[in-house]
Design goal:
About 65% of the residues lie in helices and about 5% in strands. It is built from 7 helices and 2 strands, in the order H-H-H-H-E-E-H-H-H.
Length: about 160
């Protein structure tokens, strides 16, 4: 006999977050023109920095591994969307700079796709978004702690 775990709102939230994450991952894999979804979505992230970001900064902002972000950047460079340059202060670091083609792609993204993304929020008030962000921030902190304690427990055993 299986144990009874009732579907509480908290369990439903985790289930919905996982489902939403999976749907977003499918969007990331969809090609747009000559770009993969992951390549296209990295361009506005680069654009959002005040100064050309390092690969580490991009990987963190993209919530992706260093290696995966580097592969995406190299593809974007080979197709003329970005330029990768060594960091002036740290010879081990590289920075990504949007080329004119990359800037044009960001503008096209905001012109066509950003509105569709914002449409997801139709009928959801700013206060609801703020509350959701607060809950998600707490969950992020706690899952990071859980992950860290799991690694520590595994190493100790």
């Amino acid at each position: 006999m299986r144990p009874d775990y009732p579907m509480t709102p908290k369990r439903m939230l985790i289930r919905k977050l996982a489902s939403f994450s999976n749907k977003m991952k499918r969007l990331r894999r969809m090609p747009v023109g000559d770009l993969s979804g992951s390549q296209l979505l990295l361009l506005p992230i680069i654009y959002s920095f005040d100064n050309p970001p390092t690969l580490n900064e991009l990987a963190e902002a993209n919530e992706s591994s260093y290696q995966n972000t580097r592969q995406i950047l190299e593809k974007l460079e080979s197709t003329g969307y970005v330029t990768i340059l060594p960091d002036e202060k740290d010879s081990r670091a590289i920075r990504a700079i949007l080329a004119d083609k990359g800037i044009a792609a960001v503008h096209e993204y905001y012109r066509t796709m950003y509105g569709a993304v914002l449409h997801l929020y139709d009928g959801i008030g700013d206060r609801d978004v703020e509350i959701t962000l607060s809950v998600l921030d707490t969950l992020y902190d706690r899952i990071d702690s859980l992950y860290a304690s799991s690694i520590t427990a595994h190493l100790d055993s």
